Structures are given as structure tokens and as C-alpha cells.
Write a sequence for this structure.
């Protein structure tokens, strides 16, 4: 039987030509060829059918027998890579004016996921039905999209949940969170086997942070309040939190005769002694200054818990006559939590 190859070529391409190697023509609608050579097409381009079933060579899809390359506006609707050695997908752009981008689109309720599988272990990363970014895992044939969520983050980064981390190795496990300008809140209790690392230079903890330090001092001696009356020496405002406070007052006679000398740290100003506890935030001196030497009296460290910003005072009281003693003072605080 004789058939026109030129006519077949015209039907297939609309241009170019087709060359068939020696073969037999079938009589039942099927033909077998040892080889077919198509001319008029560009080497390395993918073939596709156009309107009417005509074949054409794509300008956006290239395949050299090893690498499949998409360029321009080509979209990859589905790709399944199966390779038992080293499977890989490479996305590369030569457009220096734009950013390389892999764009996964899913218009259903649950967003697209990337699914990675090695042997029986599978991981999926993508967008959950609530709009959160998820990392999930599973084993065997279970779809990881329906597996266990081990990492979850809200779109704005306001909520991050990390699954349980179990140390099953003698070498321990190290976890680092690189979070900037955010608050990390933990519940329950934990054990830090290696301790909490402190600063290694001469800087200060930021306001509101564990270890924050605050202090204030008077720079010149000034008369204390009237005899037998507590009066403020220095004061300092502290924000809400758990603090350890301490302070000292140095007293000089200034020509006075003194028979009693007391110091207190308090949240009440002046002679109000509501929160004074002797031996805690209130101390008395067993010795008094003399004409040639001043005397210092300190309140050792004690705890103060504050629900809001509060002014703390270090105060002095003396029983004196002839003249008024003078004092300078220092008040310090360290945030412990």
C-alpha cells in the first residue's frame, strides 16, 4: 500500500516534512515505523498539539533528554518526580530584573502543601485550612497533610506553636529561636541543665527584661526632716514586676546632737510607716556619727512586687537637738522577673 508522507506532514505540522524509515504500512488503521524524522522544528523543544490536533514546538518548554526547562510564561500544572537515587527539581531564572519565584496556587479551603518523602517518612509544609503555616509529618502511606502538626505559625507571626521536643540522645538537643521584637511565653516548668547564659560584656539588660537594674543617688548633703520624723532622702519610680531593693543613707552631724538614727525603704512618702518592717526594709543604728566622722546605715536587699509603676523612697529619721543633721542616700533595684 502506498501513502503520501507529504500529505501526512501537512496534516501534522502545516509545514516542514516527515521522513519514515523502511517499514510496512498497516491495513487496520495502525502503522509501525522503525524511525521517524521530523524536520522544520527546533532542536530540544517540547512538542504539543494545537487547534485541530496539529503538532507544534514550544518556545517555553525545552527538553534535552535529561533536563526539562520551563521559561517565559510557562506554567507547570503537575510534576511527579520519581527517582530512587537523587531526585531534584531546579528552578532557575535569567531575568535579572525580577525575583525567582515558585508559585503554588490552590483555591480550595485548605491551601497548597509541599510533600517530601524519604523511605517511609513524609513531611508536608504549607497552608492549613485556618490560614496558618504548618509543618506536618507522617509515616508510611499516610498523607502528611493529615498527619501530626509539629510547627504552626499565624500569617502575621503573632502565634507560633512548636510540637514536643524529646531528648533521646546522650548528646542532648539544642533549639534556637531567632525571634526579633516578639514575646515568647511559656507555661509549665522546665529544667535548664546547662544554665541560663548571661551577658559576656559590660552592658545592661533592657527595661522590662530579667536582670534590669535601676538606681538613684543624691549628690549633696541636705537637712533631714524634723526630730523623730521620717523624711525622704531620694526616690525612684519602678515599673510593674518583681524587684529586689536595697539602699543606704550617710548621715553627718552638722553640729547636731543625735540620740537615734533610722533608715527605711518604702512605697510611702515621708513619715508614713505603713509598710515598715524592722529587720527587713527598716533598720536602726547602734552607733551615731561624731563631729569628725559621718555614719552610714543601710537597708539590705528585700523583695518588692509591684502591680504597676510605683515610686519607692529611702527615708531617714533622727532624734536630735541643737542643730539639724544632714544626709545623702542611694537606692538600687534589680528586676528578678
Amino acid at each position: 500500500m502506498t501513502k503520501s508522507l507529504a500529505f501526512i506532514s501537512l496534516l501534522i505540522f502545516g509545514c516542514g516534512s516527515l521522513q519514515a524509515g523502511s517499514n510496512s504500512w498497516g491495513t487496520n488503521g495502525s502503522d509501525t515505523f522503525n524511525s521517524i524524522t521530523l524536520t522544520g522544528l527546533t532542536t530540544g523543544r517540547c512538542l504539543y498539539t494545537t487547534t485541530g490536533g496539529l503538532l507544534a514546538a514550544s518556545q517555553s518548554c525545552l527538553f534535552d533528554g535529561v533536563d526539562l526547562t520551563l521559561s517565559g510564561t510557562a506554567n507547570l500544572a503537575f510534576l511527579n518526580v520519581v527517582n530512587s537515587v537523587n531526585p531534584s527539581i531546579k528552578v532557575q531564572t535569567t531575568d535579572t530584573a525580577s525575583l525567582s519565584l515558585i508559585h503554588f496556587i490552590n483555591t480550595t479551603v485548605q491551601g497548597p502543601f509541599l510533600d517530601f518523602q524519604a523511605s517511609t517518612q513524609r513531611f508536608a509544609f504549607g497552608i492549613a485550612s485556618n490560614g496558618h503555616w504548618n509543618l506536618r509529618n507522617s509515616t508510611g502511606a499516610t498523607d502528611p497533610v493529615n498527619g501530626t502538626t509539629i510547627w504552626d505559625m499565624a500569617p502575621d507571626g503573632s502565634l507560633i506553636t512548636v510540637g514536643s521536643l524529646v531528648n533521646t540522645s546522650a548528646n542532648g538537643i539544642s533549639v534556637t529561636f531567632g525571634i526579633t521584637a516578639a514575646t515568647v511565653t511559656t507555661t509549665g516548668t522546665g529544667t535548664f541543665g546547662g544554665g541560663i547564659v548571661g551577658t559576656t560584656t559590660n552592658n545592661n539588660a533592657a527595661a522590662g527584661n530579667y536582670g534590669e537594674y535601676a538606681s538613684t543617688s543624691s549628690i549633696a548633703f541636705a537637712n533631714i526632716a524634723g526630730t523623730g520624723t521620717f523624711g525622704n532622702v531620694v526616690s525612684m519610680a519602678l515599673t510593674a514586676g518583681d524587684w529586689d531593693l536595697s539602699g543606704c543613707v550617710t548621715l553627718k552631724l552638722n553640729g547636731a546632737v543625735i540620740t537615734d538614727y533610722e533608715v527605711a525603704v518604702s512605697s510611702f512618702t515621708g513619715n508614713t510607716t505603713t509598710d515598715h518592717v524592722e529587720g527587713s526594709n527598716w533598720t536602726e543604728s547602734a552607733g551615731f556619727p561624731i563631729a569628725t566622722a559621718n555614719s552610714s546605715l543601710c537597708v539590705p536587699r528585700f523583695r518588692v512586687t509591684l502591680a504597676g509603676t510605683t515610686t519607692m523612697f529611702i527615708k531617714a529619721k533622727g532624734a536630735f537637738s541643737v542643730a539639724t543633721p544632714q544626709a545623702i542616700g542611694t537606692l538600687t533595684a534589680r528586676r528578678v522577673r
